[in-house]
Amino acid sequence: MADGIYTVLTRARVPLEEARRICAGILGLPVLLLGELPPGPPEPGRRFALLEVERMPGEFPVRVDCSTEQEGPEEWAFAARFAREVRADCLTVEDTAHPFRYLLAEPGGRVRPVHVDIEDTPDGESFGAYRPCTAADPWCAPEPFCRTSRFPAESVLLLGRDDRGRRA
User: Where are the domains of the chain?
Assistant: First the structure.
């Protein structure tokens, strides 16, 4: 279980309402936009998630941020389910402080660490080409973040049909 904060960058040009539907399905909660929050404190026991969808430049043109106070699936499993729903590759953050290392979730349910080319543009960060994080890569091999991650170089995670993630 994770802390309920999810960020997914997707290659699919996902409309806001589709992102809302997908997040609601994954989390099993109603999903609200910030502007839809009622004034004042939330009703006791009311459960929901908050959603923000942002358009970006680059190969991953949509950023989806969804958060809830409830525990939910691991972030990689959330991204894998999102990728499956939109039938497109998605990136999500991983557990190191390496600014160019992400997890790539594929529509078939496979998730693996990658290094992503990121450029600052006048329109914001642009996420572009990526390459697998492997022990044979001379750029990765000496990198302490790649060696100490919960998702080490060449690791693969799989999202099964039952939607629970497992390591391959």
Answer: 5-35+47-167
